[in-house]
Amino acid sequence: MTMNEEWVNEKLNSLSLKLGIFKPNPYEFYFEPSEKIYEKLESGDEHDLQYVATEIARHIGVVYTPTVKYDWGLKMEPEMAGQIRFTTPLHYIQIPFFYVGKKYALGAILAHEMTHAFLISKGIFLNEKNENEMFTDLAAICIGLGKLLVNGQIVVTNGYPSEAHVLGYLSPELIAYCYRKVNIYRSIGSDVATRNLIPEAENRINHLGLTRLD
Question: How far is CA 133 from the centre of its chain?
Answer without folding.
Answer: 11
